[in-house]
Design brief:
Distance between the termini of chain A: 30 Å
Helix content of chain B: 40-55%
Number of domains of chain B: 3
Number of helices of chain A: 8
Distance between the termini of chain B: 32 Å
Largest sheet of chain A: 6 strands, mixed
CATH class of the largest domain in chain B: Alpha Beta
Number of domains of chain A: 2
Helix content of chain A: 25-40%
Order of helices and strands of chain B: HEEHHEEHEEHEHHHHHHEEEEHEHE
Strand content of chain B: 15-25%
Shape of chain A: elongated
Structural class of chain A: alpha/beta
CATH topology of the largest domain in chain A: D-Maltodextrin-Binding Protein, domain 2
Strand content of chain A: 25-35%
Shape of chain B: elongated
Number of strands of chain A: 11
Strand order of the largest sheet of chain B: 1-5-6-11-10-9-7-8
Radius of gyration of chain A: 19 Å
Structural class of chain B: alpha+beta
Oligomer: heterodimer
CATH topology of the largest domain in chain B: BirA Bifunctional Protein, domain 2
CATH superfamily of the largest domain in chain B: Bira Bifunctional Protein, Domain 2
CATH architecture of the largest domain in chain B: 2-Layer Sandwich
Number of strands of chain B: 13
CATH architecture of the largest domain in chain A: 3-Layer(aba) Sandwich
Chain lengths: 207, 358
């Protein structure tokens, strides 16, 4: 439960978008003081802004329920989770691609080369299924929560659908990207109710 | 170990102390509705599938479907406006107009809300049937605001728009306006702006669209429509409707030109109510002059419905305390139980609760 209705709460993702999010907020004059690196809640007392540090896939959950007014989340996750939030602004950092990748020494050079009933390992099951459907492939999705690159090496799957920023991880695991499914960047999202009640302060962040 | 036979996903029990709170919300709203001359109406929970499909397609997408013993297709009602439209058309033709109805009832949806798992929720609302656009719109909004005041909800906002605004924008700008409306329905401002930037709209048209989602305040919204060049004349009806609403309700009702509607049967003003205590809207409403005609009675109507559970949640989060259950005075049954019952009845006549000590 929120104690003060005037303060603005922002959900900030750990991981890939974390540093960029801090840089973006700091460019707006928002600077959080943290007492310990284990803090999950922190404040910018001058601007009356509260920050929450959460897992990337939880940002939308906090914002959708109104526990956070704003959040920063990758457009890949927004498309995967389809939360009921306002997509306010493309922040143009944290760029990466969601790609279909296979083993370097495999014969597959495009998605249509994948054999019937092939298996695709991914964290992004909705986007993977949408892709399979759109391409008319006959493939099954295997949901993993991390280290997706292992799946083809251990023959758990024929291909993976995963995010790629530099391509180093793919290369290190002898994988090669054969198709780009979408390009992602960090998006500023807002709870629809908070957006109306805190319109003035939120619009300051947009310009 | 005994297996727990819990409720199915999305349903809940209401224990007495919770029902007391629920009753507070229900009684407060009913009081307002009755003072305004509204009468209660009830329709069945089990309905024919066809009834549902005569309403909004968006509702039939999320409704529970059932098969009857003879293979007839049934449904659980997903709203009350549609069944009330049906009963009005089928039973009340020729009666003196207007009808003022209120209802309190459960609705069933696979996804009652976008953010949570509820599948059955209480809806409380009114339908004002048989009165054209104009004063009846204002009556409906007035009752909505009085409902919140009666509940003691400290902070709320009603956002309002008019279907004519977007219909005229569709006619004037064509496909691009449809694309822009869709982007707003998806709450995707990034897409909204990119459609404008990529379009061949003139510079002033681009400004018109870009500002549409930025306007603050009712005066600003009305001024924005008046600025809309070639559209100005066609939007004069919308402007006069908005001016009346602003004159009467001021900032409690906020004109929002970018507001889209979840239901597809609105034909005039449509609105939604929000409070900062809850991250989703408390309810919505609007004018639906064609809906009852789908059931064979061409008659205008307007109404709104509120989610009882969310109203209660908002009151609790705002810190409202509810009166608890008053313990009844207890009487030992004694040797002569008739005498004890007489004593109990004596208190009952004074409207005081009393019962046996067991």
């Amino acid at each position: 439960m929120k104690t003060s209705r005037d303060e603005l709460t922002i959900a900030i993702p750990k991981g890939f978008l974390h540093d960029g999010s801090y840089k973006y907020l700091s460019s707006l004059g928002i600077n959080f003081e943290t007492e310990s690196s284990r803090d999950l809640l922190f404040y910018d007392k001058k601007n009356k802004i509260k920050g929450l540090l959460v897992r990337p896939s939880d940002v939308s959950v906090y914002v959708e329920h109104g526990s956070a007014d704003l959040g920063i989340v990758g457009s890949d996750l927004l498309m995967e989770q389809a939360p009921d939030v306002i997509k306010l602004k493309d922040l143009h950092f944290g760029k990466c691609k969601l790609v279909l990748a296979v083993k370097k020494d495999s014969m597959y050079r495009k998605s249509e080369d994948l054999p019937a009933n092939s298996k695709i390992a991914t964290k992004f099951t909705k986007l993977a299924n949408d892709f399979i459907h759109k391409k008319g492939l006959s493939a099954e999705v295997i949901k993993l929560y991390g280290s997706v690159e292992l799946a083809p090496i251990l023959s758990l799957s024929d291909a993976i659908i995963d995010l790629v920023a530099t391509g180093k991880t793919l290369k290190a695991n002898n994988l090669v990207s054969i198709e780009t499914i979408l390009e992602s960047s960090a998006i500023l999202v807002a709870n629809p109710v908070a957006f109306k009640f805190k319109k003035s302060i939120i619009s300051l962040m947009l310009d | 170990m005994k297996k727990f036979l819990r409720n199915p996903k999305g349903s809940r029990d209401w224990l007495p102390n919770e029902v007391i709170k629920q009753e507070f919300v229900r009684k407060s709203l009913v009081k307002v509705f009755e003072l305004w001359g509204y009468q209660p109406i009830q329709t069945p929970i089990l309905i024919n599938w066809d009834t549902l499909t005569h309403g909004s397609t968006k509702l039939s997408d999320i409704a529970f479907k059932l098969i009857g013993q003879q293979g007839d297709l049934l449904a659980l009602r997903a709203d009350l406006t549609t069944p009330i439209a049906r009963v009005t058309a089928e039973r009340l033709k020729g009666e003196k107009l207007p009808f003022r109805f209120y209802y309190v009832g459960k609705v069933f949806r696979y996804h009652a809300r976008k953010t949570t798992n509820e599948r059955e929720l209480y809806q409380v609302g009114i339908e004002l049937i048989g009165a054209k656009e104009g004063a009846s719109d204002l009556e409906c909004l007035k009752i909505l605001l009085e409902s919140f005041n009666k509940l003691g909800l400290k902070k709320y906002l009603v956002s309002i728009n008019h279907t004519d605004l977007w219909n005229e924008l569709f006619k004037y700008f064509g496909d691009i306006a449809i694309e822009l409306y869709k982007a707003l329905s998806k709450k995707d401002f990034i897409l909204f702006k990119s459609i404008i930037n990529k379009s061949s709209l003139s510079k002033s048209e681009k400004i018109f669209w870009n500002e549409l989602i930025k306007i603050k305040g009712n005066r600003g919204a009305i001024a924005h429509i008046k600025k809309s060049g070639g559209l100005k004349k066609r939007l004069s009806k919308v402007v006069s409707s908005f001016e009346k609403i602003n004159g009467l309700f001021g900032d409690n009702v906020q004109i929002d030109l970018s507001l889209t509607s979840d239901l597809d049967y609105y034909t005039g003003i449509y609105f939604e109510a929000i409070t900062p205590y809850v991250g989703r809207n408390l309810g919505s409403g609007g004018r639906y002059d064609q809906l009852i005609n789908n059931f064979g009675f061409n008659i205008p109507a307007i109404g709104f419905s509120l989610c009882l559970e969310d109203l209660l949640l908002a009151l609790e989060l705002q810190g409202k305390t509810f009166e608890g259950f008053k313990l009844p005075k207890l009487f030992s049954s004694g040797k002569n139980i008739k005498k004890t019952f007489d004593a109990i009845n004596k208190l009952h006549k004074k409207n005081k609760s009393a019962t046996l000590k067991l």
